[in-house]
Fold this sequence. Notes:
40% of the residues lie in helices and 24% in strands. The chain contains nine helices and 13 strands. The strands form three sheets. Strands 3, 4, 5, 6, 7, 10, 11, 12 and 13 form a nine-stranded mixed sheet that branches. The longest helix is centred in the N-terminal third of the chain and has 28 residues, at 63-90. The model has no long low-confidence stretch (mean pLDDT 88).
Amino acid sequence: MDVTGRSGEMAVFAAVAAQGSLSAAARSLGLTPSAVSRIVARIEARLGVRLLVRTTRALALTAEGQAYLRAARRILADMAEVEDAIADQASPRGRLRVTASLAHGRLYVVPLLGDFTARYPGIVVDLNLSDRIVDVLGGQADVAVRFGQLADSPLTARKLGETGRVVVASPGYLARHGTPQVPDDLLGHNCLSFNFRRAEPGWPFREDGRDRALAVTGSIEANNGESLAQLARAGVGIARVGRFAVEEDLASGALVPLLEAFNPQDREPLHALFVGGSTTPARVRVFVDFIVERLAARVD
């Protein structure tokens, strides 16, 4: 341990105070008791005050010693924080908490994580896939990949792309219940919807050049589009989900798009949200840059 500078002396004094003896502090620091004693004496000589009261059984801090210990601990903690921050800029590291919607996270975010962690081996990604809104500002996550219009917020947003919605059902469901030809036909069908608080009050359609929201009902509501798509594939009902979540099903014919002539082609933006500013950890910045690079323009 380098004890030649002021910070080294402070570290030695803090160890003495924590251990309660010169010999115990010396063992913890890999020094000799005489070296520790000389360092404490040097500090006292420079300050012109007694910091420790030595007895045959223990050491006790004087009032000046307690004040010096408080200041030393604060300074050492500040130095460690500065060094960690600078080292983080050079080689990002630490735990990165990322949240994304279930379907989009599985299809688009998860496939990128292998490359990301290979590029930044010092970062541990803590991934939470859920359509529940996670409070980034409140510290529940570092980065949220989120669909929808953004409310006013001090969070920083980087746009990743946008997606459209599609109304779908399985061929089996349509064979049993018929294919809706106009939006109002949905009133006689089992429509599967979202149950979370940002869900739309109705399904939007465009008829005769006018936009309208149709209030639909059904037997099941879910908090993620992947579950709704799965239910639709199983023939339970009709769902309206992000097109990206059912691309493979549409291509294979497992799901059929409905009422496309009435689809308003409303677009839902996708953003990465995080706490920005000069204190943003490097692990957050490099992750956001990485997914912007990889995801921008990929979502449909």
